[in-house]
Specification:
The structure is a homodimer.
Chain A lengths: L13 H7 L9 E13 L11 E9 L9 E2 L2 E3 L6 H13 L5 E8 L10 E9 L15 E9 L3 E6 L5 E5 L4 E2 L11 H16 L4 H5 L4 E2 H12 L5 H8 L3 E7 L7 E5 L3 H12 L1
Parallel strand pairs in A: 1-6
Antiparallel strand pairs in A: 1-2, 1-4, 2-3, 2-7, 5-6, 7-8, 8-9, 9-10, 11-13, 12-13
Helix pairs in contact in A: 5-6
Chain B binds a DNA duplex through helix 6.
DNA sequence: TCAATAGTGTCTTTAAGACACTATGTT
DNA sequence: AACATAGTGTCTTAAAGACACTATTGA
């Protein structure tokens, strides 16, 4: 234990020091959190299909004032002095979606000088995943618009289309420009945040269990594969995928409603305990 | 392009808005950067050896005032209003070590409410790696002490020993307590930062090239293996390691001074271009 | 000469990928 | 009946690990 009675150069012990301490009147940046909220949604059936396909979507809000007025942005807000960064992220998340049961992880902190023309803002971005499909974006107190945007993350471009189809944001990864007549990129550096979030998801899919945070309690293996394919952006062999995923799930005695042959599974959080045992053994 | 002449609810265009904008007098947290600076150092020979072994070390400074007076801490400082987070990290790094040519990456942002008893401080931690072994810590203007600490990162405990052997910090990972009579843990939440940094290194070693940032321009394969072993905390089969590492290096016609059979290699930054080609092919 | 190290060769085990095949449910 | 999908079996290929062996150097 460190000795609280140690005295500093001015002869103060720690308590005296803290009482005498006045934070200087230095200029300070504002600190905010921004949250990328992802979930899945049933894809509109293009052909007659028996099983449903899913799509990835992200929640965006429309700015009502300068700067970037009328631009779409990632939801976020100021960090209160009495709340942790993560707490602030949870609070904002709840304010935007009324959802509480989510996967949440810190993504990155964006703090470039000019990222907000009004003032210096340091923003810590969080990544949230939820399995709920029935989330209605909450209209904010300032009557801001909030919409889900389907994420089409191709190799050449990223395309965001609002669920009603009225708003489209298109970004060309090669030319690094937003390239659609009626589309404008996201506000601030929010495009960077989104791209980093998608990248993080892609990377973490095959060495963590993030995919299951997007899936409901019970799911078919085909649905799980569908999620992996969406996040990885490529097709996966169904036989090989089944072999791998079976290590991570436990089967139920239930079957899917729409296709009775599809068995339902649930995620098994203990699946990697065995692997850890092996790991220790190796050492 | 977004139209700057759009007018908001008050009838302002963007320029008018920005000019009229006064950042509110909300309380704001202080924003700092902390930097974990790692490098290697020749291990003191315990037995007569022909080749030198390396150890990992981290730079710490000794606090001269409350809070955590006389505790060791990770170097860092306030972010100026006109510099990016990363710029601030570079600046602090140079102030502490006079080294500029380093690998630098953002680690995590620590922002819990009580982490600094004086005031609310949000700190973005950075991870720096340098290959230079001859770095003398710069004594700060406030005459603060700075020392390199050898990192012994075992499974049960983390032990930090200053190069002169006078300071020892020992942390028991299982009981989560600092467990040495004369040792006290690091200041603030800096132990968490250090542990996260070591974890990040361990994880990134085998899917990135961070290890080479700790190695000099020319190195033997044994030295490279030594670094991997230190960061991973386990022994590696030399034949298998050689097979893997040879993909990432190019050989020179030079040989080590101390043991003439040891061929010297240099890192080949283009080694993964081929792999990327394959990756695209797969898709 | 001897011990330590650099470096090679090869066998085994494991993981990943490709692909054909059967079975079942839906229309 | 025709078709889409669930689910299985098996072959091939690539990566990872284990380990014995030779060659060279420095003391």
């Amino acid at each position: 234990m460190r000795d609280k009675e140690l005295r500093n150069a001015k002869g103060q012990n720690e308590q005296e020091f803290l009482e005498a301490y006045k934070p200087g009147n230095y200029e300070r940046p504002s600190v905010t959190v921004d949250i990328l909220i992802f979930s899945l949604i049933d894809k509109k059936a293009e052909t007659k299909r028996t099983v449903s396909q899913k799509e990835l979507r992200v929640l965006l809000i429309k700015r009502k004032d300068h700067p970037f007025m009328h631009c779409w942005a990632i939801p976020g807000g100021f960090v209160n002095m009495d709340e942790n960064l993560e707490t602030a992220a949870y609070r904002e998340l709840k304010e935007e979606t009324n959802v509480e049961d989510v996967y949440l992880e810190q993504l990155y902190t964006f703090g470039n000088v000019g990222r907000d023309p009004r003032m210096r803002v340091i923003s810590t971005a969080y990544l949230a995943l939820t399995s709920q499909e029935d989330i209605e974006p909450v209209a904010g107190d300032d009557a801001k618009e909030a919409k889900w945007f389907i994420v089409q993350n191709g190799e050449q471009y990223l395309k965001l289309v609002s669920e009603d189809g009225k708003d489209v944001i298109c970004y060309d990864k090669t030319t690094k420009k937003d390239s659609l007549k009626d589309g404008s990129a996201l506000a601030f550096d929010h495009l960077d945040i989104l791209l980093m979030g998608l990248d993080r998801l892609k990377n973490k899919v095959d060495y963590t269990d993030v995919a299951f945070s997007l899936l409901p309690e019970l799911f078919t293996i085909t649905e799980a594969r569908n999620v992996y394919e969406i996040l990885l952006g490529k097709q996966i062999d169904k036989a090989n995928f089944r072999r791998e995923i079976k290590k991570k799930v436990i089967e139920t005695d239930q079957y899917a409603d729409d296709y009775k042959k599809s068995q339902l599974y649930r995620f098994n959080p203990c699946w990697n305990n065995k692997k850890k045992d092996n790991y220790i053994k190796v050492k």
